[in-house]
Each structure stands twice: as structure tokens, then as C-alpha cells.
Design a protein that fits this description.
This protein is an all-alpha fold. Helices cover 61% and strands 2% of the residues.
């Protein structure tokens, strides 16, 4: 992903081949700031929801290929691993120990999320992230933190069951991911121009937003973002 000097997403960059080696040392990660691991979880959180949309809609992935059953299975495993091991993995960082939970979580953040999205595709959550980068207030927040809010927005856009929304909200709060506008630097009540600009960028021609199974307009995205913020605020009020 390439950003402008102003911090706005400019384009995805697709390389001709994958790296020969991806080496991740969990003993180093165990001593790293927890926010980095949490942001990785925010990015990985989108994998299952976006992959499912793309697979069900027969959408080509970002390399022009078709999704496979194995890719979808990896994406689902990614989500289940986050729910099962996210909190324990963060606890591992508190003790600076490379525990089995941290090993599994790093696998989800890196391998399962990477293969899941590359082999299936992206949808609304990452498009919302791209839109959020147009707002200067979000520039202090990491990619995965903004994607996490994009996941909740996608769930609202798709009118997903309340049980799924609450599961995602509960997980997000348990690991410190943002669930409101304020959580991604927009303040409690962002102005209409800011939200419109975000929504317009999220629905720009060629954006992954259009992998959703219905036409998506800036107005729909704006409504979904407001609904996501309302759901997050309600969850915070009801759950401390």
C-alpha cells in the first residue's frame, strides 16, 4: 500500500512474486509494544469478513485469481484464532514471554491473514480504512486500528446479525481496538464534510468497496459509519 506525503492512501502495489522468506521472531515480538500486536489484530480481523464477501460473490482477488475453499478456511481460522488467543497473546507481551498463545496469534496476524486476503480479496473494511486516511485526525492511528473500525462499518453496511456485531465489538474492546469515531481520531462528532470526504474516497472507482454484493454509495457508507459509531458507543456504555 502506497501513501502520499500527506498520509492518504494512494494505491495498492502488487509485486510479481512473493518474498522467498518471511521470518518472524516471536521472542522479539514478546518484547515489543502491545499496540503493534493489537493493530495487527485489527487488520487480521477483517480477513474473514472480507474474504467471505469476495468468495460468495465470485469476486476475483487482487491478483486476478479466483478464491479457493482452502483460502476461505484459512480466513475463518484467522478469525477464530483472534477470538481464542488475542487476549492471552497480549498478556504474553506483558510478561515478555513467547507463549503458545502468542505463537498462534502471530501466525494468524501474519500467515493466515496474509494468505486469506491475498487469495480471496478485500471489501468494505479496507475501503473504509482508505477513506479514513483522508482525515488528518486519523494519521496518528495505525493501519489495523482504522481497519478495525472499517470492519464494524462493513457489518453495519451489510446489516449483519446483532450477535456477530456484538462478538466483534466484544473482541475489539478486549484487545484495545477502536470501536468509535473518537477511537480513530475523528472526535466524538466529526463534521459532515469530513464524513462525506471519507465516504467518497471509500467508494471511489476501483475501490474494494465495490466487492460488496450490492451497489454502495457514499451516503450508504456515511450511514454505516454513523451506525458503527453508535454501536460502539452503546457497547462502551453498557460494558464499562
Amino acid at each position: 500500500m502506497v501513501y502520499t506525503d500527506a498520509g492518504v492512501v494512494e494505491q495498492y502495489r502488487i509485486y510479481r512474486r512473493n518474498p522467498d522468506l518471511v521470518l518472524v521472531d516471536t521472542t522479539v515480538i514478546a518484547k515489543s509494544p502491545a499496540r503493534f500486536l493489537t493493530a495487527g489484530m485489527g487488520d487480521a480481523l477483517a480477513t474473514w469478513f472480507e474474504a467471505k464477501v469476495c468468495a460468495e460473490g465470485g469476486v476475483r482477488n487482487m491478483r486476478g485469481g479466483a478464491s479457493t475453499r482452502s483460502a476461505l478456511a484459512l480466513a475463518e481460522l484467522c478469525y477464530k484464532t483472534l477470538l481464542a488467543d488475542g487476549v492471552a497473546a497480549l498478556e504474553s507481551l506483558r510478561h515478555q514471554e513467547a507463549t503458545p498463545a502468542l505463537e498462534r496469534l502471530v501466525e494468524a496476524n501474519t500467515l493466515l491473514s496474509g494468505l486469506g486476503f491475498e487469495s480471496s480479496g478485500l471489501a468494505a473494511a479496507h475501503a473504509v480504512h482508505n477513506g479514513l486516511t483522508t482525515a488528518a485526525g486519523t494519521h496518528d492511528y495505525m493501519h489495523g486500528e482504522k481497519v478495525a473500525f472499517g470492519v464494524i462499518t462493513q457489518l453495519m453496511l451489510e446489516d449483519q446479525p446483532r450477535t456477530i456485531v456484538e462478538e466483534v465489538l466484544a473482541f475489539s474492546k478486549s484487545v484495545g481496538l477502536p470501536v468509535t469515531f473518537a477511537g480513530v481520531g475523528l472526535g466524538a462528532t466529526p463534521d459532515a464534510d469530513t464524513l462525506r470526504r471519507i465516504a467518497e474516497r471509500a467508494t471511489a472507482p476501483g475501490e474494494t468497496m465495490h466487492n460488496e454484493p450490492f451497489p454502495v454509495t457514499p451516503q450508504l457508507v456515511e450511514q454505516a459509519m454513523r451506525a458503527a459509531n453508535d454501536a460502539g458507543m452503546l457497547w462502551e456504555r453498557n460494558n464499562g
